[in-house]
């Protein structure tokens, strides 16, 4: 157990950069998770925890979790509340933060099983949407999530927090383009989610597994080459005056209909 | 058309306070809506627009909308980009912002129709969730939304923006407690959304209209006296390891199942 007191300490600087920069996360291969529950989720899912930062108050209040995490993590540092604020992404931090090695959750995609039902995300940009979608995907037992590499960073603090730990448990794969992924996985029946009166209504579809439903960008929907590669188009019928749904809501209703 | 140049101008100060303070919005009876589309939604729904702020760039770029709004609003002020930033709630503002009188959308609730299906929210706290729920409620043609008065402020800029204008079109009612509302509206079949294996599964329920589904707080769910007042309990069956859904996702799946 080491006390850190300076914001110029290399470990603190590293944590701040990991919080702020997707590029730095990509270059170093690490990300941060904050809060007692998320840090314990990381531990329970056997993620590689490089560094564990904790405040004195938190290590007393959550002594059981502190003991487990400090034993499990490579390094543990006790930091002051003000120093913790600098590495935290929340206004009222709990005083637990871990630096974690990026996850390898791709084995699920090596062999597609007959029962597999996947969700694919094409250029999704809002970290709150992505976090919520991962949480919903786990809640309804989606087999895994495929992300095009131009989606927002899955390791951003907002995504990790919004996923409520699903990021540690849910298989996910980042691919160059969904169109490539679909070409490489011809066994999957694919459904492109679109806003169109001509597409099949989600209420009329029996999702044939193994399958994948593709959901697009918040403003622009799916890329045209993704739609072209999909074997089916699916739409969520709307009755009101709204023109579209929030992307996380649309994805969740599709997940719900596919999995129920 | 008047040019405003000082951030100490009383109209600017008023707009800043309306943006920041729920208390000030309540006291004055006004709120702000930002962006070309939201301002036009306010106009099209006959909201009372007290003040219209616009930047020079925006009034050229959106001249048609500018003409309509400046004719409709009581006052119009042209402001510099930097002054606009001070009243704006976004990082890259479009240059349109209106101060609008709080809405009166309660007439729908005066006489309950046989076909009415309502959503009720109990102490919902996250403005992003509330905005998204209003957007979804409109998309699926919910008859109206009832909010307990301890919900987050429906007139906060985040809610207004997240609703994508639904706030201007969707009937809503703010009541002291949902339990009072249910007592005063005994005709409504009421469904309390809970996380419980004992509750009826949403997939097994035929929602009997007129009805209302009540959804609770992000962390704590529904208040116990709300649950007691409801005639039925409903749950969204989950299969995965997640313990719960994001409140806006849970509400949206319930809306979807109730309205489809």
Question: What attributes characterize this protein structure?
Answer:
12 helices; alpha/beta; 5-stranded mixed sheet; 260 residues
Question: In words, what does this structure look like?
Answer:
Two copies of one chain form a homodimer. Chain A is built from twelve helices and twelve strands. In chain A, helix 7 links the parallel strand 6 and strand 7. In chain A, helix 7 runs parallel beside helix 12. In chain A, the strands form two sheets. A seven-stranded parallel sheet of chain A has the order 8-7-6-11-9-12-10, with helices on both faces. With 260 residues, chain A is α/β, with parallel strands linked by helices. At the A-B interface, helix 7 and helix 12 of A face helix 7 and helix 12 of B.
Main beta sheet of chain A, described? 7 strands, parallel
User: What does the oligomeric state look like here?
Assistant: homodimer
Poorly predicted sequence stretches spanning 5 or more consecutive residues of chain A: none
Main sheet: strand order of chain A: 8-7-6-11-9-12-10
Would you tell me the overall average pLDDT of chain A?
A: 95
List the chains of the largest interface with their residue counts. A-B, 31 and 31 residues
Number of helices of chain A: 12
* Distance between the ends of chain A: 48 Å
Question: Given the C-alpha coordinates, what overall shape of chain A results?
Answer: elongated
Percent strand of chain A equals 15-25%
**How much helical structure, as a percent, in the residues of chain A?**
25-40%
Count the E strands of chain A: 12
Series of secondary-structure elements of chain A, N-terminal to C-terminal: EHHEHEHHEHEEHEHHEHEEEHEH
Which structural category do the helix and sheet elements of chain A fall into? Answer: alpha/beta
Q: In angstroms, what is the radius of gyration of chain A? A: 20 Å
């Amino acid at each position: 157990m080491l006390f850190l007191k300076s914001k110029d300490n290399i470990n603190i600087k590293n944590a701040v950069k990991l919080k702020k920069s997707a590029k730095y996360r990509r270059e170093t291969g690490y990300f941060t998770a904050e809060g007692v529950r998320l840090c314990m989720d990381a531990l329970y899912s056997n993620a590689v925890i490089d560094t564990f930062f904790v405040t004195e108050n938190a290590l007393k209040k959550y002594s059981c979790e502190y003991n487990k995490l400090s034993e499990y993590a490579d390094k543990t540092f006790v930091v002051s509340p003000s120093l913790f604020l600098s590495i935290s992404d929340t206004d009222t931090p709990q005083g637990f933060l871990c630096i974690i090695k990026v996850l390898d959750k791709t084995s699920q995609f090596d062999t597609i099983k007959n029962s597999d039902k996947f969700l694919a995300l094409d250029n999704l940009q809002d970290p709150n949407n992505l976090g919520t979608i991962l949480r919903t995907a786990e809640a309804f037992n989606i087999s895994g999530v495929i992300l095009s590499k131009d989606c927002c960073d899955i390791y951003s603090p907002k995504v990790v927090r919004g996923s409520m730990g699903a990021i540690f448990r849910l298989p996910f794969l980042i691919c160059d383009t969904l169109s490539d992924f679909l070409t490489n996985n011809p066994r999957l029946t694919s459904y492109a989610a679109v806003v169109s009166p001509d597409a099949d209504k989600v209420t009329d579809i029996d999702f044939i597994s193994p399958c994948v439903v593709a959901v697009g960008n918040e403003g622009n929907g799916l890329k045209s080459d993704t739609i072209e590669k999909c074997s089916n188009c699916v739409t969520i019928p709307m009755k009101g005056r709204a023109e579209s749904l929030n992307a996380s809501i649309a994805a969740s209703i599709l997940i719900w209909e596919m999995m129920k």
